Amino acid sequence: MIDIDLGEVRNWFGFGVAGNFAGHLEQAGEAGDFVKVVTEGYAPKGIFPWYAPGRDDFLGEFPLSSDAIQLPEPGEVDGPLNLQIEPEVGVACHVVWNGDTVARLEPFALGAFNDCSIRRPGAPKISYKKNWGPASKGVAPQFFEISDLTPDGPTATMRLVCYLSEDGGQQHAYGVDSPLVGYSYYGEVLLDWIVERLANQKGSADTPLEDVGALMVASGHPENVLIGIGATRYTPLGESTYLKPGDEAIVRVYDSASSAASELRQVVSAR
Question: Where are the beta strands (DSSP E) in 129-240?
Answer without folding.
Answer: 137-139, 142-145, 158-165, 171-179, 224-231
